[in-house]
Every structure is written in structure tokens, then in C-alpha cells.
Design goal:
With 262 residues, the protein is an alpha/beta fold. Strand 1, helix 1 and strand 2 form a beta-alpha-beta unit. It binds fe (ii) ion. Fe (ii) ion binds next to loops.
């Protein structure tokens, strides 16, 4: 499996504070069958979390060396989780934020409450300069949980949607868990990722259990797409296939039809 969203590098954000904990996390990931992980520290404009690109790249290189020394078989690549804000496309072009594995996709984190006014413009500008967008854990955003039709608009724009394993495991409570499942069943998700911050966040048993639940509720083929095939496409920068809803999904009429430009 490939994990496109993990706070594994030490001392950059609210992930591990020390290298030892990062290595412990890496060992847990490798044992859980994860072969590649994008290191995605937070990048939030106007906050203490704005790690310079050079620092993250240096840490990724250093971390590879530490993994090899410990014999931990895990491929790591640079990335960032960029908070949704005006001007992300400019930041990418100026080389101030990192895309996933240096490729086409940028991981964009929506706010936990309300999307900013002009969110369409933010995403459109990224797409317009030839990049792709992966939205992190929309199930944790109150606005998107209340208005899944907005997630549908994003999907219709060609934006990828990433759900957290931890949401399905119930680590943010029942409401987030149910929202995550409703997005998966509504065809409003392209892939799963850990969003891990600590070694205890995931393990082989938890992922096995969730994969079984996914297969039962969504079927084998769709589970494979979410867990393996789409993350692989994102890793190499290929476009994603949209999924049709599995069952009737409470969808209000889509607003802003003028925006369906592709
Ligand atoms: Fe995250």
C-alpha cells in the first residue's frame, strides 16, 4: 500500500517530536504492509507551521538514511499538507510548497469548519496551472459533512478526495466515521490515507480489520481502487477515475452549475 498523507518527520509540526518516534512509526507502517509514504508536514500560511521546502527535502533525505540504518523497508517521499488558502497555485509555482512525491498532486487541507469564500477559485487556479488537487479528509470538515453536494462539485471539477483510515476506525468520533462511510458509499472518495501523527495511530491489525469492513460494504474491486490503485496513480501523478455512488445518496441540487467546466 501507498500512504499519501502522514506526519512522520520529527519536529516539523504536530507529528513526532523526536527521530526515535518517527522511526517507530515507520516500523509500524512497514509491518502494516505500507511500502511507500509521502511525508506531509502541515503548511499553514501565517502560522508557525510553514516549514521551508529545503528543510523538508533535507529531512526526507536524512530520514531515508536513518531508515536504511535501522533496516526498515519503507520508501519515503516529500510532500506537504497545505491549508486551503488563496494563492496556493502561486506558492507551488514559486517552489514554496511541495507536491506529493514531487508530482502533479498537491494535498490540500480544508478548514475544520467552513470552507473559505472563493474555495472554487483556489482549486481552479491550481488545476489551471496543470497541477492536480487531493483534498485531505473532507469528512472532518463541518461544512463538507453538512453539504456533501459541495464534495460532489469538487469531484466534478476533477479534484481527488482522500478519506482518513482513522476516521473509519472511529478515532474522531461517530459523526466523522459515519460521514466518511457516506462519502465512500456515495462515490465521493478516491483513496484512503493514514494522516498518522503517532506510532499508535495505525497498525497491521487495524488496517486488516478495516479492509475487511471495506470489502464487505463496498466490494473487493472498489476497496482495491481506494486502498491500492488510486494511491498508486496519485503517487505517479496520473488522473483518477471517478466512482459512481453505491446507493442512493442524499444529494441536493448542485449549486453553481456554471462552474462545471469539465
Ligand atoms: Fe494531516
Amino acid at each position: 500500500m501507498i500512504d499519501l498523507h502522514a506526519h512522520m518527520l520529527p519536529g516539523l509540526d504536530d507529528g513526532p517530536a523526536k527521530l526515535e518516534e518517527s522511526l517507530e512509526m515507520a516500523a509500524v507502517y512497514a509491518a502494516a504492509g505500507i511500502s511507500k509514504v509521502a511525508m506531509t508536514p502541515h503548511w499553514v500560511v501565517g502560522s508557525a507551521w510553514q516549514p521551508p521546502v529545503e528543510k523538508v527535502l533535507k529531512w526526507v533525505t536524512g530520514f531515508r538514511g536513518a531508515l536504511a540504518k535501522r533496516g526498515i523497508d519503507l520508501e519515503v517521499a516529500p510532500g506537504m499538507e497545505v491549508a486551503m488558502t488563496m494563492g496556493i497555485s502561486g506558492l507551488i509555482q514559486a517552489g514554496e510548497v511541495l507536491t506529493l512525491n514531487g508530482g502533479a498532486y498537491v494535498l490540500v487541507e480544508p478548514p475544520f469548519q467552513q470552507l473559505p469564500v472563493g474555495w472554487e477559485q483556489i482549486l481552479f487556479e491550481i488545476l489551471a496551472v496543470g497541477h492536480r488537487v487531493l483534498i485531505a479528509h473532507p469528512e472532518r470538515c463541518g461544512h463538507l459533512a453538512r453539504e456533501p453536494e459541495v464534495v460532489r462539485e469538487m469531484v466534478d471539477m476533477g479534484v481527488g478526495i482522500q478519506i482518513n483510515w482513522k476516521s473509519l476506525l472511529g478515532q474522531y468520533g461517530k459523526t466523522v466515521r459515519e460521514t466518511a462511510w457516506s462519502f465512500l458509499e456515495g462515490g465521493l472518495a478516491h483513496c484512503l490515507a493514514t494522516d498518522g501523527h503517532r506510532p499508535v495511530d495505525i497498525n497491521a491489525e487495524k488496517l486488516r480489520r478495516m479492509k475487511r469492513a471495506l470489502s464487505e460494504r463496498l466490494g473487493e474491486a472498489r476497496t482495491r481502487l481506494l486502498v491500492k490503485e488510486n494511491p498508486e496513480r496519485i503517487w505517479v501523478g496520473e488522473p483518477l477515475e471517478n466512482l459512481s455512488p453505491l446507493k442512493a445518496f442524499s444529494q441536493k441540487k448542485t449549486r453553481r452549475r456554471w462552474f462545471k467546466w469539465r
